[in-house]
Every structure is written in structure tokens, then in C-alpha cells.
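Recap for those who missed Tuesday's class. We walked through two folding examples back to back. For each one, the amino acid string is listed first and its predicted C-alpha cells come directly after. Nothing is annotated here on purpose, so try labeling regions yourself before you check the end of the notes.
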Amino acid sequence: MSSVSNWALFAHIIGIVFWVGGLLAAGQMLAGIRREPSPEAHAALARLARKLLKAMAHPGAAVTVLAGITLLGANPGDLQRGWLHVKLGFVVILIAVDLFLTASVARLVRRGSEIPASRVKLTHAVVALLFLAIVFLAALKP
């Protein structure tokens, strides 16, 4: 593996950790809103969730995708591997979940719209399962 590939792999791993960590942390902020009686606490947790997405998850997603493209450029033969197609499908789903969560948080910050607890829990579970599936495929390359 070349030096560029090593750095790209390092960036790819760090990026996914920040991306998924930011999504999970933002989800925890949303889950905490229901436990807080104060409207001020609701607003503060919603703003914190938005900051986590903007400052952690979204930059992590950008680094992950850019580093992944760099890795594919360095190893174009990987595009022929079935496990990579499945992994990329999971990444597309993770992007969709990210966009959904971002839109939900924006509505919450703007209008104070409630996000059902079941949706927060489902989003959290889907992010965690996608992360585990992506890591499994990347590590084992079945």
C-alpha cells in the first residue's frame, strides 16, 4: 500500500468515526429532550444536536467520502468486489439517514416540532447497525 493510500485509509477511518459519532451524539441530544421539562432545555439540546451535526458529523462525512474516493482511485480493482458494492449501498443509506436527521433537527430548532421518541430510537439503531455492517465489510471483505 502506498503512502497516499495509508493516509487516505487513516482519514477514511477517522472520518467515519466522527461522522457516526456525531450522528449518535446528536441522536442522544434529541432523546434527552423528552426527559427535560423546561422549554429552554429543549431549545438548548436541539441547538447542541445541530452543532454536533454541523461541526462533527458533516465534516466527518465529507472526509470519509473524499478519502474513500482517494482509496478507490489508488485501488480501482476494488470496484469489482461485491462486498464493496454492498458497503457503498450502506454508505448511501447512512447519507440518507444523516439528511433525515439533519432535517428533523432543523425543524426542531426552527419550529420546536416534536420528534417522536420512536423515530429517535429507530434512527439511532439504524446508524449503529449501518456502522457495524460497514466496518464488518471493510474489515473482513467477504
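Example two. Treat it independently of the first, because the proteins are unrelated.
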Amino acid sequence: MNVHEFSVAMLTTNGSIKTPTAIAKEAGKSQSSGSRLLTGLSTASLDFVPTAKKFFGKKAINFATDDFGISRRYAKNTEGVSSMKDASTKTFTTGTSIVAGGFTDGTYFIPVDLEHWVTEFIMKDAYLTKPELAKKIVERMLESSINIRYFVYDGLYFNQDFIEFLDDKNVKFVIKAKTTTSVTYKNKQMQLRDCPDLRLNDNQNCKKIQALWKKRLWYFIALRRSGKHGEKIIYLVANFDAKTKIYGQTYDCRWAVEKFIRTGKQSLGLSRSQSKYAHTYLNHIKCVFWAYTILQFIMKKFRLDSAEDALRKVQALKNRLSFNQIVDSISLMVNHA
């Protein structure tokens, strides 16, 4: 059993049971073959990059990063688990946390890299914060030779050390800033939310200023956004000059990685590995990466609106093709995309 077969079986397996045993059964393999694959799998982060190059071609694309938690409430002996906040329930649970990133043009998302965050009381002197883990991903992506236009992050990564790291690497970025961020603008100290030149009128959706923060000049942008709780104003920080709408369009690319996490958890078994070994459940996540990439190729080929539509198309193949025929059909599609 190989990664491609394992990932296709993730797609064709019905329901939410996406354990290695269920996936191996779907592929017509022995029950232990799925576990053996994940135990012995050795994939480097840059192994996923050639597929992203093939998918996007010469198009300039963005790199979006986000973190997500995997609840392992009853698995206290699992490597790397600790108390963490479950974003879906807003409660604390036992689990593990992943920093993941991938390439996106705003419509499609190809996940390519991850880092495993482990709490300080376990890692001790080797502990790294999530922004520090994101640095490692950035450095690998700069080696990928892909034309990355902008790196995009949410407010967790609004961190002086991380922002200056990106700037020193000559990386263009857009990061969500805190509304209470204190900047020096026109020789006056003020918070972003109190800056008169960032106040939006009823007919305005964005404004931009250049201000001093932590002894460096940055561009700060106010954006009007609508959400489930109504309209709100968010603030972004960037290190490049552009039309104000560009910042908003770039930051909105983050939605692509959030959709990946949602689909991964709900439909692809992102949180379904039962292994207590970190190496094994991280390999399970990498197979989810490939499964989601397959869905992106299908979305693009058939001009579908979502990864869920692509998933339904794959599962419909079970009515007329054997599993091996489905694997061959998808292999042909990905190799010649």
C-alpha cells in the first residue's frame, strides 16, 4: 500500500470512520497494511511542492498558514498531547496542535507543510512557539523556487520577532494586527482603533496609513468585514505598498486554508488517527494533505465549487469502478493536470 492508494481510500471510504484499519479495508488490503504504511512513511516537507508547481504553473501565488487542534481527550499517553483550547467548543481539552501551510490563489489550496507544536512543559529548553514554528516553514518555502507573492497570517502571528524575521528575509506579508496596537503616526502615539486616518465612512471599505511600530515603518490597513456577528473593522499590517484592496484580497486567501481544515476534519479523517506515536499520526495528516490535493485537481478539472463537491464525485465512482480502477483514474488525472 502506498500514499496515493491510502489517500484515495480516504476519499472513497464513506462516513467519518477514517482509521488506518478502515482505510486498508476500503483498499482491499490487510488490516495492518495501513498502520505499517504510516509507521514507515518518510516524507519531507518539500516532497509536496512539485505537485503544487504542477497545479498552479507559473502563476504567482500566496502562502497561507494557520494552526488547528486535534482533540485526543482520552489519549493522555499519546506523544505530544497536552491541555489545549478546542476552537469548535471554546473549551479546554487534551489534544495536539499543528501549524500547517500551503499555496493558494484564493480559490484553490494545496497543503504542503506542517510543524507539530508541543507545549513547553514537555519540550522544556527545546520549546518553540507557533510563530517560531512558522519561521521554519517559511525558510523551507523560500527554498522551494515557487513564485510566492505574499505570506498571509492571522492575529496569532502578530509578533514583533516574527514580523521582523519576515521583513529581514525580504518576504512580503499580510498579518492581522491587534486593534489596540500602539503606533507613532504624524509624530503622535495612538492605537490603531483611535487613528483618525483609519476611520471608515459608510461608503468606505478600506484605508491605509504608514506608521512607526517597534522602531520600523509599516503599512497599517483598516478593513470593513462582514461576519456571522455583523460588520466589524479589522486591522492588518504589511511591509509593502499596494492599492488598499490588494491587502484585503490577500488576507481573504486565509479562508482557503480554513476550508481545508474544516473539510479535513469533517470528511477526510484529519483527526481520526488512533496512534499514540507522533510520527504515525503526523504521517496520517500528510496523507490527508494528499487526499485534499486530489480533490483540488478534481475541482479544477470539472470546475466544481467546493472540495465537498469533488469528494462526492469521487465517491460516485464506486458505483461503476473497482477501487484499483479509481486509483488509476485519479493517478492519470493528477499526472496530466
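Answers for example two:
The longest strand covers residues 91-104.
The CA atoms of residues 201 and 207 lie 10 Å apart.
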